[in-house]
Amino acid sequence: MATPIGQIPFREKGHTNCVEHKGRQLELYCEKCDTLVCLKCLSTIHKGHDVCELNEITPQKKQDIQNFIDRTETNDLVQLRKYITSTDTLLKDNTSNFEKVSNKLKTQTDQLKQDLDLLTTQTLSLYQKMEEDNAKLIQTYKQDLEMYDKQLKQRVQECKTALQRGSNIEIYDAGCAIGSKTNLPVKPVLGTASFTPNKHPKHHLELALGTIDISREGQASVDQDNTSVTPSG
C-alpha cells in the first residue's frame, strides 16, 4: 500500500526492507539523515548524502548499547530501586500523618462537645434556678392575695352586720374601718430568660474547631539532587 501524500514513511522496528522502495534491502546508513537506506535511495531522496555500509556503524552502536546497559544497571536501576523502597516509608508516613491530624481533630471535637454540654448544663441549671425562684415569688404572691381576699371578705361581713344590728358605736367603728385604705399585694417582678438559636453556626464552629490546612501537590516532587532516571540514548 502506497504511503499517503505528505506522510513521512516509517520503518517498523526489525523490518529489513526499505520503506521507500519495496523489496529493497537496507544495506547502507545515511549519516546526514541518521537513517537506514537502500542502494536505490542513493539516486533518489538521499542523492549526494554521505553514506556508509551498515556494518561500519555496528561497532559504535554496540558500544552505545553497552554503555546504556552499564549506565542503567549501575545508576538508574539502583536509584529506581531506592525510590521504590522509599515508597514504603512514604506510605507509612502518610498513614501516620493523617492518623495524627485526624486524632487531633477528633480530640478537639470531643472537647468542644464536652464544653458545649457543660455550657448547656450550666445554662439549664440557671434556667431551673430562675424557674424555682419565680415559682416561690408567685406562690407568695398568691398567698398574699388569698389573705387579702379573706380580710376583705371579713370586713364586708362586719359592715353588713353593723348595718343590720349594730349600735351607733359599732356603725361608727365600721365606717372608720372602711375609710382606711388597704393596698393590694404588690405583684412580684419575675426573672426572665430567653434563648435565640444561632441560625448560621457553621462559621463559629469552624473558628472554635481550629485551623485546617490542606495542600495538594499536583505534580511529583523533584528530588533534591535533581536526579533523573530517564534513560538517555
What does this 3D model show about the protein?
The chain has about 230 residues and is mostly helical. The chain contains 3 helices and 3 strands; from the N terminus they run βββααα. The chain has helices at about 55-165, 170-180, 200-210; strands spanning about 30, 35, 50-55. The two termini are about 30 Å apart. About 5% of the residues are buried.
List the helices and strands and how they pair.
Elements: E1 28-30, E2 35-37, E3 51-53, H1 54-165, H2 168-179, H3 202-209
Antiparallel strand pairs: 1-2, 1-3
Helix pairs in contact: 1-2
Task: Summarize the amount of helix as a percent range.
Answer: 55-70%
Order of helices and strands: EEEHHH
Largest sheet: 3 strands, antiparallel
What proportion of the residues form beta strands (DSSP E)?
A: under 5%
Q: Count of helical segments?
A: 3
Descriptive tags:
233 residues; mainly alpha; three-stranded antiparallel beta sheet; 3 helices; 3 strands; rod-shaped; disordered N terminus
Could you give a short description of this structure?
The chain is mostly helical.
